[in-house]
Write a structure and sequence with these properties.
Layout (H helix, E strand, L loop, with lengths): L4 E8 L2 H4 L7 E6 L4 E7 L3 H10 L3 E6 L17 H4 L2
Length: about 90
């Protein structure tokens, strides 16, 4: 069974040094323009990994990702209006 994963957005000042975040979890995406890293880690080790993240000198801010809390299943309560315009 797959472990529960939690996503975090880590704002960094140095992207080259941010490659070291791979030891704390899975780096999903690194933005060169906005200087942030999307990092996924196991939910059971989150607290100790966050303490290590805040100790790093190149980490400016850490935000929790709410992606797993967003509803992704939609109901079709409203009729599809695009069918009325098709030829």
């Amino acid at each position: 069974m797959l472990p529960e994963r939690t996503g975090y957005i880590v704002w960094v000042s140095d992207l080259k040094a941010a490659r070291g975040l791979e030891r704390l979890g899975t780096v999903h995406y690194m933005s060169r323009k906005l200087h942030y890293v999307v990092l996924y880690m196991n939910a059971d080790k989150v607290e100790e990994n966050l303490k290590q993240l805040h100790r790093l000198s190149y980490v400016r801010k850490v935000e929790r990702s709410y992606r797993n809390e967003i509803k992704t299943e939609y109901s079709k309560d409203v009729e599809d209006k695009t069918r009325a315009y098709s030829i």
